[in-house]
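Entry for the shared binder. Reason: the reviewer on the internal report wants the predicted structure included alongside the sequence.
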Amino acid sequence: MAKNDFVGKWRITEMSTWDKDYFDEEVPAYIKIEKNLMGNFHLGYVQGEMDGRIIKRQDGEYFEFTFDGNDYGGGDDVSGSGWMKLKGKNNAEGEIKFHLGDGSTFQARRIKR
């Protein structure tokens, strides 16, 4: 598996902490990973810029990232971390955690390379 396997735009389809009405509030929720492993995401009222890397674990490769952004619902700056693991070519699962805040696992489907 190469880092390019993670590159693309991923549609967040399910989250353990928030329902679809929330995470799709402003736009269809997504994570976008660029070739340089930087990227961005938008879910609910939160937008963030990501800085990532590929990590090899016993059970496969993961895209791990930290992020910095804004929660326009509360007007606060937010930061945190997360990870994503591929489940086949066009599906993924992961987790996003806000520093001193909530976290959620998610399911995602690739919509664009």
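Summary line for the report: The beta strands are 8-15, 30-33, 38-43, 46-57, 60-71, 76-86, 91-98, 103-112.
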